[in-house]
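Worked problem 6 (solution included).
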Amino acid sequence: MGTPCHFALFDLQPGFNLDLDLLATRYRELARSVHPDRFADAPEGEQRVALERSASLNDAYQTLKSAPKRARYLLALKGEVPLEVTVQDPEFLMQQMQWREELEDLQDEADLAGVAVFKRRLKVAQGELNQSFAACWDDVAQRDQAERLMRRMQFLDKLSYEVRQLEERLDD
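Solution. The predicted structure is:
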C-alpha cells in the first residue's frame, strides 16, 4: 500500500485553489491524533508508526499550504515533473533579471519603503501566477504551460523569501 494522496489525508479534493484555513484546521486536528507524545507509553512499534505518520502528515501539510509546492505536487500526480536544466522561458528570465537588479538597488540604498512597495508588487505577481496555474494545471494540452507557471511560482517564492530577509536586515 502506497502513501495516501496528500489531499485525501485532509479529506480534500485535489485542486489548486484550497481553503487554507480549513487545511490548517484539519492539520491541527490530525496532528493531535498522531502526536508522538500520545504514544509515549505504547510499544516501540506503535511509537515508530506514530512518528512516521506525524512526519508524513507534516510533509503533506507543508506541501499543500505552499502554492509552488502544491502546484508541483498536482503536476506530479499526473506524471513526472522533469527537473529543468535549461529554462525555456526567455521572457521570464528577463523579468527575473530586472527584479534581481531592483532588489540589489533597494539593498544598496537601504530603502525600506521601496522594499515594501517591491513586496506588494511581488504579491500581485504571485496572485496572477496562481490564477493562471489554477486555470490550466488540469488540462493535459496545457501541461507545458502549467510546468512553466509552476517554475515561475518557485522563483517568486524564493524571491519573496529574499525580500523578507532584506526587510529584516534593514529593520534591525
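Discussion: Residues 6-65 form a domain with the Helix Hairpins fold (CATH 1.10.287.110).
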